[in-house]
Amino acid sequence: SQEGIKELEDLLEIASYGDYLDQIKTNFTIVRGLNYYDGFVVETNLNFKATNKKGKEVDIGSICSGGQYNKLISRFKGVDIPGTGMSIGVDRLLFVMMQLNQIKVDEKKPVIVCVMDEKYLKNYYEILKILRENNINSEIFLDSKKNLGKQLTYANKRECPVAVICGENEFKENTVTLKNLLGIKGDNNQKTVKKENLVNEIKKLI
């Protein structure tokens, strides 16, 4: 309608007061939630090419989107209150910031706590708690039905540095077995230590 066109003209005029008018384009084919928005809608896109870890160009879509919704509040309050808002795709925004080297991500891989026997599940979570309380990035293997070999295969794929392995003997003797997953093949990469030395021994390996 003419009213809508006038609104866009006013918005573009206000935008011209700043330095980014050249970053704004009108697109009359965009459709967003017709039962939600009742005015202008906005979608933002990158002004540079994004690539994945393999260097292949990828289209990550809109980073930030929104618009005008003058009748939204009436659904809850029974009165029309004009509103405008936008939502940001946080994961996409972080991806973009990493592309521009504007954010550093700690990619330290977690120590994996293997689950050998479901009846000791509480004990495994106690170990996990000890590690996290000492600022050691760690996680527990959630599928206890998978054998140790498959759990270690998963840990290797995740590039986890250490696997904590505890069975009935370890719990009886109050010890833990640590497997250095980044060790040299052929070396003895596994050792059993007292539980009270767990944190210090793991810190030597990560």
From TrEMBL:
Signal peptide: none annotated. Residues 111-204 form the Anticodon-binding domain. It catalyses: tRNA(His) + L-histidine + ATP = L-histidyl-tRNA(His) + AMP + diphosphate + H(+). It is an enzyme of class 6 (ligase). GO terms for biological process: translation. SUPFAM superfamilies: Class II aaRS ABD-related (SSF52954), Class II aaRS and biotin synthetases (SSF55681). InterPro entries: aa-tRNA-synth_II/BPL/LPL, Anticodon-bd, Anticodon-bd_dom_sf, HisRS-like_core, HisRS_anticodon. Residues 5-93 form the Class II Histidinyl-tRNA synthetase (HisRS)-like catalytic core domain. GO terms for molecular function: ATP binding; histidine-tRNA ligase activity. The keyword Secreted does not apply. Keywords: Aminoacyl-tRNA synthetase, ATP-binding, Ligase, Nucleotide-binding, Protein biosynthesis. Its EC number is 6.1.1.21. The keyword NAD does not apply. Belongs to the class-II aminoacyl-tRNA synthetase family. This is histidine--tRNA ligase. It comes from marine metagenome.
